[in-house]
């Protein structure tokens, strides 16, 4: 291969005199390397530089490390390895690898210095090329740093956003914990409002169960020990659930207790409660109630059903007693509320069961209601147990029926055995 025509195409040698080209050509060695072949490694000693005739060389920093990066590609007419010719230690500043099969002209250290001595203008051209490369490298480094700065700024902004979101989440967690604590306190208060102990009356066995759908609920029950061997019996269901219903329930229970203590007939008691609720009720809530008075000596139960589920009455053998349905409207809605008293005399061994509609409205995963008929059958199957065991068994039956389906409504139950 004739080298002189090649030298004339390389800008680096434009300043070399025409008669000097043959001598220059004799000082150069033509070599060829394959694709992916390493020409030399960073930091290894070097005593020659190369001119690219054809092909492409890759300039790589930190080759083989986690910080490896490709600086640039160089093509025909470029030279490489010249830095080792000026470095006192002659160390390579980067690793060079052939990207495709590449042909090079190789010049050793001694020939290069002799050429510079004979062709001073060549030194200027080399210096100019080096300056240009250094400037380009500086620009690339600055551009790289600017890009890293941009990436860091973006990452910092994301981190700041994440921190802000984390702070907001922390505030929400704290607020949630505070609300949960307040609800727990509200539940404890509600449980304290409901009877803590049941009256002890000869010949009467009592049982109760209560399970709110949320932390607090709107169902209520009460058993009031009245004079003349009488027992006031209350069960009710506020139209809402949660905290508003619990507050309305507490208000209704207080009014019921106050009016029941006057020993007025059940219908009169509920009419007075209705009047007070209309004066105080600004939230549009209402309550369905059964209030009755059990004369324990005579086993006579007089009650009023104000829009509430009709109770069950069972004889000792499990057959049902039907005192009638009666008429009654919920409390808290109408000024002239319609109420009708019913009365039933119970034979010895009878059982009264009052409940809220959370029991009958319980659903299973197939959205099937528990229903009043299934509730009646469950009651009759637990007929021989005590009043409290009877209530607990019924709640367990309903829980098994729900089969992990969520509880949709509050549930309350009162059982009274009359011996």
Task: Tell me what the structure shows.
With 419 residues, this protein is α+β, with helices and mostly antiparallel strands. It has two domains: 115 residues, Jelly Rolls (Sandwich), CATH 2.60.120.10; 225 residues, Phosphatase 2c, domain 1 (4-Layer Sandwich), CATH 3.60.40. It contains nine helices and 17 strands. The strands form four sheets. The protein has a five-stranded antiparallel beta sheet, with helices on one face. Strands 1-8-3-6 form a four-stranded antiparallel beta sheet. The longest helix is centred in the middle third of the chain and has 74 residues. The mean pLDDT is 85.
Any key phrases for this structure?
about 425 residues; alpha+beta; Jelly Rolls; Phosphatase 2c, domain 1; 2 domains; 9 helices; 17 strands
Shape: rod-shaped
Q: Unreliable runs, pLDDT <50, ≥5 residues?
A: none
Please indicate the percent range of residues in DSSP E strands (runs of 2 or more): 15-25%
The CATH topology assignment of the largest domain is Phosphatase 2c, domain 1
Named at the architecture level, the CATH assignment of the largest domain is 4-Layer Sandwich
Strand and helix order: HHEEEEEEHEEHHEEEHHEEEEEHHE
Largest sheet: 5 strands, antiparallel
Report the CATH superfamily of the largest domain. PPM-type phosphatase domain
Name the structural class: alpha+beta
